[in-house]
Structures
1.
Amino acid sequence: MSGLVIGAAVGALAGLLFAPAPGDETREKLTEKTKELSDDLSEKFDNLKETVNEVLEDVKKTGTEVLEDVKKATKKTAPEA
């Protein structure tokens, strides 16, 4: 995914630099494209962070459930003192 974003950024930059346009216009286009790419990358990072948090919560919940099951099984099989 990051390769796709980097490739798009390089392609956009190359297209702007080689297009026949005045310097001011080119700089303005570069600024716009940089902002767009930055916003897109930020959104993708936020989505990734959210997904990782969801996975961690699932792992934590599953780990707690497994620990409780082990405790119950240990109590059932442990000899009475």
2.
Amino acid sequence: MIWNDLKDYACEGDLVQLIGRSHQYFIVRLKSGSEFQSHRGVIKHDDLIGLQWGSQVLSHKGNPFYLMQPSLADVLKDIPRTSQILYPKDIGFILISMDIGPGKRVVEAGTGSGAFTTALAYAVGSEGMVYSYDVRPDIQKVAISNVAQLGMTDRVVFKQRDISDGFDEQGVDALFLDLPNPHDYLGPSRDALKAGGFLGGILPTANQMTLLLTALYRYDFAFVEVCEIMLRYYKTEPTRFRPTDRMVAHTGFLYFARPIIKNETVEGQSGKDTVEKDQEQDRS
């Protein structure tokens, strides 16, 4: 059972969110006989089991907490990690831009700690499948545990190997590269994608991005887009509504592209010439 397939009240084994003052929260799995401990006091799990979502509870020190169901964003920000994870602000845009939804088959290169793997598994649903590649078994071990904790192991196939020799899958709907040198793997990526599929990825620096852009056109990818997403929160006090002092700014350049097939001739012009003109217009 996935973590949010819950009843109207908290049950043993549920993953729950305890939200205290200043919106600080803790995510715990309920187990009879256990206790939640923080600097704001102790709460017995037995006192939470059977409560409706949204109920207020008090620690032994009298500090209030609210019992809530954690969102996917909350879960991803809280998972154990051994490497940098993708932020929810980027993940949501990626899923929509690459048309990743129920029943889709998706390849991910660069498992990392599994935050994006988890989001992919949630998005493709029980009928879809995620294939996640990484050469680092120690790091991927953390991702495997994170996905298992959220009940989505049956939606993900983990593979520990270098992708230089290509991917096992063909005809996948989308492929995401979370690698520092994606320009080296565009050939294998194109071979794995279905005709007209979605390629995407993230890079932290401009020089990496310019290398990739040149390679994308060389491997006949088109409709290339690059963007970054800034997120700014606001103080929710009616009498002093204003931006918060800090914001989540640059986390990486997101890029998207589609593989194309060049026709030999298009109205007297070679398909190659036509596509190159289109791509030159894109670059300008």
